[in-house]
């Protein structure tokens, strides 16, 4: 069984204030300062430690790619959200993971935030099958397409363009903070759900391309996935 997932976050402003010692700075100016001091990338996007979880969506699929169950959460009580996610991940003992940049962001984020709230994560997340970079049980599309960093990392949206499918129709990652400030948490979860379905569609195309699934199964699963993706984008 595999769990395809995505996590949406906003900066943990309270924690960031402590780290860079600017207790009175307004959030936007604080974010600019934090981007200069804490980010190690051109975009200024803060590392996982400095974010908090406001939504997540997961899709359970069988090993052959057949979808089984969607689970999700959104809210402002991060501890509640993490508990719901860890409970969902405890549904199956030897699950695998599928994601886009989960190794670089989502999984470290979950570890940091679980530590913050003194919570215990599912033991499976620390298992060799998951931690080993070349594992077939922890599939990061960034690694799969870049040959584990030998080539450049593709954006999920650009993978959609490549296969002729418009992704990111319900929002962009840089809009999440503004949506959060407008109390649009259900909309953030909806955006997250689109990312999960987009990840699933790209994974299906990859599995077919490398010969892991036959055309009949691919066509069946892809038709169903595209129907759901279109439904998400139309809402």
Automatic annotation (TrEMBL):
Which InterPro entries is this protein grouped with? 3'-5'_exonuclease_PolB-like (IPR019288), RNaseH-like_sf (IPR012337), RNaseH_sf (IPR036397)
Identify the SUPFAM superfamilies for this entry: Ribonuclease H-like
Chain ranges of the Predicted 3'-5' exonuclease PolB-like domain: 44-229
GO molecular function per UniProt? exonuclease activity; nucleic acid binding
Q: Which Pfam families match?
A: DNA_pol_B_exo2
Query: Does the UniProt entry include the keyword Hydrolase?
Result: yes
Write down the superkingdom of origin: Bacteria
Which named protein is this? Answer: Predicted 3'-5' exonuclease related to the exonuclease domain of PolB
